[in-house]
Each structure stands twice: as C-alpha cells, then as structure tokens.
Amino acid sequence: MTRTFDIALVGATGSVGEALVQLLEEREFPVANLHLLASGESAGRSLSYKGKNLRVRDLETFDFATVRLVFFAAGSKVTQKYAVLAAAAGCAVIDLASGLPAAQAPRIIPEVNREALAKLTAPYLLTSPSAPGIALATVLAALPEQVGIRRVAVTACLAVSSRGREGVSELARQTAELLNGRAFEPQLFDRQMAFNLLAQVEQTDGDGHAALERQIAAEIKELLALPQLLVAVTCVQVPVFFGDSLSVSLQTESTVDLKQVYAALDTAPALELVELDDYPTAVGDAVGQDVVYVGRVRAGLDDPSELNLWITSDNVRKGAALNAVQIAELLIKHYL
Predict the structure, then answer these.
(1) How far apart are CA 147 and CA 225, in angstroms?
(2) CA-based, 20 to 30 A from 310: which of 43, 124, 174, 292?
(3) What are the structural domains, with CATH classification, of the chain?
(4) Which residues, in sequence order, are CB contacts of 238 under 8 Å at separation 6+?
C-alpha cells in the first residue's frame, strides 16, 4: 500500500502556489491531507484540488505538527519567520523563495545534484533555486565534462510574473492604458514596463549588482560544485507575462566540439534541444511545459573556446513549482 503524507502549502493563493496545487494533482503526489495556507487577507478563499474546493486557512494559526512536509511559496520574509517553526515540529521544508541561507537549506535540482540529499539529515530544509538559476544550471550540468567551463556570462530576461501576480496585473494595466491612449503612473515598477525593457529588476548594491544577480551566481557555483567558477549575471525585466529567456556565453578550457555538445544536450533529462536552423521562445514553446528549451547553440565568432546558448523556460511551472514537487518526490521516496 502506498504511503500518503499530510502536506502544507504556504502561499497557496499566489501564482506559484496555484501551480503547485495543480502539479500535486497532475503527478498524483501521495497526499493524505493538503492544507492550503496564506496570510490573513487571503485566508478564506478556495482552490480546486481533485474535484474538491479546499479552503485556504490562516497561516498564523496553523499547527505544523499536523503535517510532514511544507512548501513555502510566499516570499522570503514569510519563510524566515515560519520555516523554523515547521522544522522544530519535525517537518521537511522546501523553500521556493530563497528565504533561508544555503548553509541551512541547500539548493537542489533533481536533474543536477540529487545526490546532495544523501548528505543531509532530518528535518530536511531544502531550497528550490530561482527560476533562472534552475534553467541555467540544468543546461550547464548537461554539457559534456570535456567542455570544462571557466566562465559564464548570462543576460536573464525575466518575465513580469517573476514579481508575482502584481507584476502580471501591472503589465496588463499599463498595456491597456497605452493602447487606449491614456496616461498612467507606474506602480509596481519604477517606470513604464509595457513595450519597454528595464535594465535592472530590483535595487542594486553599492557595486551595482542586484541581489538576484548575486543569488543566481551563487546558485550556479553551488549546484555545479564549482566554487571557483567565474559568473557574470545581468537581469533584465521584459514585457512578457510568463517565461524567462537567457542569453548565455561560456568560456571553456579548450576548443568547443559542437557535435559532442549537441549530443549531450539532446539526450539530457528535462531538456529540449532546438536545432540550429530554429530557436525556442517563451510564448511559443516554454510556457506550460515541464522542460527547459535550449537553442542557438554555437561557437564564438572569433574564439573557438567560446560557446553561446539561448535558453527559455516557464518560470512559474518549471522554474518554481515543478522543481519543488520533484524535490518532494525524492524526499518521500528515499528519506521520509
């Protein structure tokens, strides 16, 4: 008889939370009781799960001792406040908001570093990395070992859904106002987002780097177990609702063997290789899918040890909810 688990989902009413509920049902996750949790203003709403409407409860009053596993998808501050309580109650914790330090909650991508779980002990505190980090690491980990990556430079074009429902609503509002010839004041973003590109996604530090840019660099080094890897990251906010796209340039140890690279990417799990005469897009390919798309694979114009790639992935489904569910599947199969 298959074991089932009582599970809690914090942040159930957000876009990632709703995707998590959908995937738990689609993948027939062995749920006994699913507890949907949110802050006070969102409590009382209902979400559909396996033909039933489950009421969203107030996180503040929830007893974590009643569940075995908790997904945190409600922002870093919420995770920081409540993950300790969940762990103290004996729950496994999967953090989707990078609220916990990596030393406390290691970053896991099942297709990349699932073996890291074997080094941990209960209660398990784990982090599902950022959406661009997941897309990039999944592709880099699939490259042949002979490539020998020395440096990674990535420009991450992030969909407005990276800012949650508010980002989607703000882009829709701005677009409608502009198409109707009406003036508007930007709200969530610091300037016009519709029909525009923003060269940074959040405030930068004294050196000009955003926290997410530093986070992605740290994630890649940890996930690939290459602490000395040189990583440069630029995050750009683009007027796309869902789906991140990454332009990546790698400096390698030796001349790139493109046939070897193609073969490795073509057979890698969770990847879809698009041949050189075509390329993937977020809207046309990635959104709603469970794989990372990679295309425009080519050597450098002047440097044979340069490898260039174009990557796109659904930032909410593949880049957040699915990775977290896959981590949970590993936990219940081998460790809980």
Answers:
(1) 15
(2) 174
(3) 5-129+320-334 (3.40.50.720), 133-315 (3.30.360.10)
(4) 157, 158, 159, 160, 197, 198, 245
96-121 pLDDT, tens digit per residue, is: 999 999 999 999 999 999 999 999 98
Q: Which amino acid is at 31?
A: V
* Tokens describing residue 89: 């109650």
Q: How many residues does the chain have?
A: 336
Q: How far apart are alpha carbons 60 and 176 in whole angstroms?
A: 37
**What confidence category does residue 1 fall into, taking pLDDT thresholds of 50, 70 and 90?**
very low
Q: What is the pLDDT of residues 261-315, one digit of tens each?
A: 999 999 999 999 998 889 999 999 999 999 999 999 999 999 999 999 999 999 9
pLDDT value at position 43? 79
Question: Are 243 and 287 spatial neighbours (Cβ–Cβ below 8 Å)?
Answer: yes
**Helix, strand, or coil (residue 71):** strand
How far apart are the C-alpha atoms of 10 and 17, rounded to whole Å? 8
Cα 173 to its chain centre, rounded Å, is 25
Write the CA distances from 330 to 50, 196, 312, 316, integer angstroms.
22, 41, 25, 20
What SS3 string covers 237-304? ECCCCCCEEEEEEEEECCCCCHHHHHHHHHHCCCEEECCCCCCCCHHHHHCCCCCEEEEEEEECCCCC
Q: What confidence tens digit (pLDDT) does each residue in 240-266 have?
A: 999 999 999 999 999 999 999 999 999
**CA distance linking residue 278 with residue 86, whole number of Å:** 47
> Cα–Cα distance between 137 and 125 in angstroms, integer?
20
User: Strand locations in the chain, DSSP E?
Assistant: 5-10, 31-38, 46-49, 52-55, 57-58, 69-72, 92-95, 125-127, 149-158, 230-237, 244-252, 271-273, 292-299, 306-313
> Which three-class secondary structure state does DSSP give residue 1?
coil
pLDDT at position 277, please?
86
Helix-helix angle 131-142:211-223, to 10 degrees: 30
